[in-house]
Amino acid sequence: MKDRRIDVEIRMIEALIFSKPDGISLQEISKRLKIKTEDVKQYLNEIELHYIQDQHGVELARNGNKYRFEIKPEIKSMIFPNPKKLELTETQFDVLTILFMNGESRLIEIENIRGKNSYYQIKRLMEHGLVKKVKRKNQPYYKLTDKFYDLLPDKTIRKLEDMKKSDFAKSHSDFVPK
C-alpha cells in the first residue's frame, strides 16, 4: 500500500512540474500536494534520476529554487538545429548586469548607476523577454525574467552568483567582525 502511495505522489509531482513551464519551488509542491518537504526532496531526486536515463528526451532541471522539465541539450540541438541568436548591445548588458547584481530596481536607480538614460535599453530588453515590469508600492520596478536565466547555462549562473556574493562581502567588509 505504501509503494502505491509513493508512486501516486511521484506522478502528482511530475504532473504539477509539467503544468508549470516557468517552474515550481519545492515548498510550493509540498504545500499544493500536502506532502512533507523531506519526502518531496526525495521524490525530486528519484524523478531526476529517472529522467537522466537515455530513453527520455526531457530532464528535470533546477533553476534557482524552481524545478521544471526541459528538453535535454542533445535532443534540443536535433529539434532546433539553428537556434535564433539573441544579439544585445553593450548598454543592454549593462542594464542586465545591474538588475542581476541589485535585483528589482526602479528606472531611476538603474540610470543613477549607469549615469545615462536607460529607458530605451529597458524597453528593448522587455521586447526580448529578458526583463519585465512589476509594480511595488505603486512604483514600476524592473526585474529579470525566467527567460534571462534560461538563456544562461547553470554553470554561468553559479559563477555570477558567486561573484555577486563576493562583491557583496567586499563592499560590506567594514561590518564583518575581525
Describe the structure.
The protein has 178 residues and is of the alpha+beta class. The protein has two domains: 2-79, Winged helix-like DNA-binding domain superfamily/Winged helix DNA-binding domain (Arc Repressor Mutant, subunit A); 84-173, Orthogonal Bundle (Arc Repressor Mutant, subunit A). Helix content is 57%, strand content 15%. It has nine helices and five strands; from the N terminus they run αβααββααααββαα. The strands form two sheets. The protein has a three-stranded antiparallel beta sheet. Helix 1 (2-18) packs across helix 3 and helix 5 packs across helix 7 (119-127). Residues 172-178 have low confidence and may be disordered.
Short recap of the structure:
The chain has nine helices and five strands; from the N terminus they run αβααββααααββαα. By secondary structure, the protein is α+β, with helices and mostly antiparallel strands.
Content of β-strand: 5-15%
Any idea what the shape is? globular
Report the helical percentage.
55-70%
CATH architecture tag of the largest domain? Orthogonal Bundle
Mean pLDDT: 84
CATH class of the largest domain: Mainly Alpha
**Which superfamily, in CATH terms, is the homologous superfamily of the largest domain?**
Winged helix-like DNA-binding domain superfamily/Winged helix DNA-binding domain
Number of strands: 5
Biggest β-sheet: count, sense, barrel?
3 strands, antiparallel
Instruction: Return the domain count.
Output: 2
Please tally the helical runs, counting DSSP H or I stretches of 4 or more residues: 9
